[in-house]
């Protein structure tokens, strides 16, 4: 009886139903708590880009509430109010990355290194988190820009904090879903991220997204380059592509800030 | 999965922790350790042992999965069709692993970001599948629970020992608390997986020298 096809199929079906039910229940029960943790972690990463760190998530949430003002812009640098989410923090950068990726690929037409006009990218929402000076509601200490891309194995992302001049990087944090430990996964190590600090994204008056070099221990690194991660060429390529795409997408907005800064002088 | 433990059926009056049962728990801690003797579950031992905290979480996760999958499979052992038993075992393991992963995401989010990938890989951990196939399919529930406990404790002490030396020598800390003065030189090698290879190799060496174990 136990070996009959009917028994085997019946057993498999019963097991599938029980396991499916159990996992669905676990997911539903824990969802709210997980969403809260993810939201807190996002705030933690945003603050980490400007060097505010700590283990106490509630304290970080308080700093976030006090000092971060957020807006959403499009690829033309205009602020948008209808961005399909409750708040800029809720904008899915991953979903927007997918929208943007298709358009960029079409514009590049097979030539990966082709130079394209990023302002022709439509329907992409770009959140910007302004880190205000302590005690000020109007003076910005840094602009934190979320970035997203694809590494060697899976998605990669990060937050790049720009100084108010919108020319130099104040700090950067990167995360990944599955890069190789000890190799590509080093993109989320502090020593790799610190290499971006103070780097310039402008060269001869034009945007030049800071790029990671090939190999490690390079000498003669320019203001627009950072040293590489040995053994992680494809993760580096993904990281560079992410920086090129996003800093170009944010460029119209950054130009406005730079323009304002000039006129204020 | 090389080892196949056969435990004789014993009469019902056996004590809860009889000598034989204590043996089931104690054996994998030393003479039949899954990592150092059977050389199973090495991937996670290399990957999560840079620090004590993820290693402890991984140990608890493996313990939960081995003990409960052993118990569940043992309870079902007379019902499971032989032809699909491996799939059934994998189904049970995968379910427990997903439950652990979801709980970690809800209550220990930072740790889950570090060990999440490896928690998922418990599904393919030979220790777990090995215990189900070699023990739980042929033994009673309580014996299977003890067997799972023994195997997971054997796994746990080795990865915790590796993590202790790696964190101490690599970062000068234990459980994130700085114990070595800053002036003490840090061994960068210990923070990379290479350090884990060296420490595990040394543990295997010392243990086999002490026990006189020789590979057949």
Provide the structure class of chain A. alpha+beta
DSSP summary: helix tally of chain A:
5
Largest sheet of chain B: 2 strands, antiparallel
Helix content of chain B: 55-70%
Spatial separation of the terminal alpha carbons of chain A: 88 Å
- SSE run of chain A: HHEHEEEEHEEEEH
Give, in spatial order, the strands making up the sheet with the most strands of chain B.
Answer: 1-2
Mean pLDDT of chain A: 89
Give the overall shape of chain B, derived from the CA principal axes.
globular
Structural class of chain B: mainly alpha
- The shape of chain A, in one word, is globular
Mean pLDDT value of chain B: 85
* Oligomer type: heterodimer
Radius of gyration of chain A, CA atoms, in whole angstroms: 22 Å
Low-confidence stretches of chain A: none
Please summarize the sheet with the most strands of chain A.
5 strands, antiparallel
Q: Would you identify the regions of chain B where 5 or more consecutive residues have pLDDT less than 50?
A: none
Number of strands of chain B: 2
SSE map:
The complex is a heterodimer of chains A (265) and B (216).
Chain A: H1 5-48, H2 57-67, E1 68-73, H3 93-108, E2 126-132, E3 140-150, E4 155-162, E5 169-176, H4 190-193, E6 202-203, E7 206-207, E8 211-212, E9 225-226, H5 233-264
Helix pairs in contact in A: 1-2
Chain B: H1 19-26, H2 42-47, H3 52-76, H4 85-107, H5 109-120, H6 126-134, H7 141-171, E1 173-174, E2 177-178, H8 193-211
Antiparallel strand pairs in B: 1-2
Helix pairs in contact in B: 1-7, 3-4, 3-5, 3-6, 3-7, 4-5, 4-6, 7-8
